[in-house]
């Protein structure tokens, strides 16, 4: 019998853990010896749900996806709370900062990303730590510390008006704080939204009680024993006793760079997810850059994990990754938002727009060569499934473009389950179709929990769970069966991004 293939995964976040799960499920008798290194203590948790932890709608244990016991039960050696400090590609060895040395046959870097801390005067102490009362929003421990600080604070400032900054603002608001979001850009979430959408989102955020300052540069943090306020570029001051930095993230590439791997924005990989010039060394997730793109999103990270697991196990040796076509549905501080494809039109694109700012509704489609090339949808959840489906399957847009923005169901009840196409993607994070959910129920799964466990629907951002539950209920009813217990409510504070404004993949 051949010796086990030693697979070392550096990073125990959502991408690294998903790769381990996929390799185990696909190994089919081929012996694998999996060793993982994770900087944070404990197992893997769903970082997408951190805003819920901050807001108090989720407890830390609620978002754990793979507890420590899972690793031992599946034959995975986990070095928890351990950081790899050195890689020797020639000797095929990794060494952590405690001196633990592990040989590898294949090495996967899933090192994720780290928060960007802007060069704001007074924010960072001489030892590199943030001044008391200032936080980044990245880990469960960050959430715990922020919650404690919020209980002793009255006014909070969030620096950054991207997705994570808005979620942090919503979470702090739930603690009873006076919250202000300060954003350098001209409008909120400018990476994903156009100006009109950003302004409508701002109205919705302000209606919740959060103040928003855009086109505002924070140049100084005033602190004595702790934070006392911030100062803008024009010299004006805003008093506060808690500051949260949510100014984006950067791929963690230092380890790769130090061992001579090619690094640009992220760790460069080819269509095999392999690092050029380094056979047997791969990168996936937030840290990886493929064809010039570092996605920083959950769905691409999991697509990459699936492709790489196919290749490593031999279950599909010709599997390659050609990039991801993204359609992301999320809640931004409770507001329904969907973004897909291109944001900016080219010269020959049709732009179809409908806007009702007073109701928080904004719909914008880019039609290119009679196909949906991009869309921004705010406050129009009944429109999203049809537009997403057209975008993903590249089917022609209707001649009457407005039919996409004003389907027969309008803003009324959701489309009946029997009218949803079997190919419709219900879970974007894991690319789970309606047909897969129906088949799982027909094969014996009678609860939301069982269906989610078997298909992985709802295990990413969680925003699809109500729709999955609806399908389960209808199929069970048609079978003359009663849905089993195990329902799950909507997760108000969830997102599908893990990148620039994100929770790590």
How would you describe what is shown here?
The protein has 13 helices and 29 strands. The protein has 505 residues and is of the alpha/beta class. It has four domains: 5-113 and 250-313, FAD/NAD(P)-binding domain, CATH 3.50.50.60; 134-247, FAD/NAD(P)-binding domain (3-Layer(bba) Sandwich); 325-415, FAD/NAD-linked reductase, C-terminal dimerisation domain (Enolase-like, domain 1), CATH 3.30.390; 423-493, Arc Repressor Mutant, subunit A (Orthogonal Bundle). The strands form nine sheets. A five-stranded parallel β-sheet has the order 5-2-1-9-21. Strand 23 and strand 24 form a beta hairpin. Helix 11 (434-442) packs across helix 13 (465-478). The protein is globular. The two termini are 36 Å apart. 47% of the residues are buried.
Feature tags:
disordered C terminus, Enolase-like, domain 1, 29 strands, single chain, 4 domains, alpha/beta, 505 residues, FAD/NAD(P)-binding domain, five-stranded parallel beta sheet
């Amino acid at each position: 019998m051949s010796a086990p293939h030693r697979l070392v995964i550096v990073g125990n976040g959502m991408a690294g853990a998903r790769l381990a799960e996929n390799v185990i499920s696909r190994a089919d008798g081929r012996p694998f010896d999996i060793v993982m290194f994770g900087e944070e203590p404990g197992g893997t948790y769903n970082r997408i749900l951190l805003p819920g932890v901050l807001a108090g709608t989720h407890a830390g244990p609620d978002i754990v996806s793979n507890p420590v016991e899972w690793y031992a039960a599946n034959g995975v050696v986990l070095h928890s709370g351990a950081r790899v400090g050195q890689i020797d590609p020639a000797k095929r060895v990794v060494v952590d900062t405690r001196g633990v040395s592990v040989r590898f046959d294949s090495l996967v870097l899933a090192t994720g990303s780290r928060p960007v801390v802007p060069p704001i005067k007074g924010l960072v102490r001489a030892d590199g730590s943030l001044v008391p009362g200032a936080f980044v929003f990245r880990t469960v421990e960050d959430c715990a510390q922020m919650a404690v600080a919020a209980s002793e604070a009255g006014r909070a400032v969030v620096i950054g008006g991207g997705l994570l900054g808005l979620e942090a603002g919503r979470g702090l608001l739930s603690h009873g704080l006076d919250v202000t979001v300060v954003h350098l850009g001209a409008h909120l979430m400018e990476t994903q939204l156009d100006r009109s959408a950003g302004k409508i989102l701002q109205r919705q955020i302000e209606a919740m009680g959060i103040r928003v300052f855009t086109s505002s540069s924070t140049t100084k943090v005033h602190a004595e024993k702790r934070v006392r306020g911030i100062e803008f570029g024009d010299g004006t001051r805003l008093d506060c006793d808690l500051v949260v930095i949510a100014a984006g993230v950067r791929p963690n590439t230092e380890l790769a760079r130090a061992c001579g791997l090619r690094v640009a924005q992220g760790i460069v990989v080819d269509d095999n997810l392999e690092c050029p010039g380094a056979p047997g060394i791969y990168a996936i997730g937030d840290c990886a850059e493929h064809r010039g793109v570092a996605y920083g999103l959950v769905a691409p990270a999991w697509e990459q994990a699936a492709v790489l697991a196919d290749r490593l196990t031999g279950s599909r040796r010709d599997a390659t990754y050609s990039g991801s076509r993204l359609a992301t549905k999320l809640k931004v501080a409770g507001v329904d938002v969907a973004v897909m494809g291109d944001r900016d039109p080219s010269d020959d694109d049709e732009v179809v727009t409908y806007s009702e700012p007073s109701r928080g509704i904004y719909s914008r489609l880019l039609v290119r060569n009679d196909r949906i090339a991009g869309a921004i949808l705010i406050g129009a959840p009944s429109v999203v499934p049809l537009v997403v489906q057209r975008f993903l399957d590249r089917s022609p847009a209707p001649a009457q473009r407005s039919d996409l923005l004003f389907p027969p169901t309008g803003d009324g009840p959701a489309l009946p389950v029997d009218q949803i196409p079997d190919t419709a993607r219900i879970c974007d994070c894991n690319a789970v179709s309606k047909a897969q959910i129906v088949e799982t129920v027909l094969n014996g799964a009678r609860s939301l929990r069982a269906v989610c466990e078997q298909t992985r629907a709802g295990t990413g951002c969680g925003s699809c769970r109500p729709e999955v539950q609806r399908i389960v209920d209808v199929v069970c009813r048609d079978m003359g069966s009663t849905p089993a217990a195990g329902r799950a409510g909507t997760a108000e504070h969830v997102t599908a991004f893990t990148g620039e404004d994100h929770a790590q993949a």
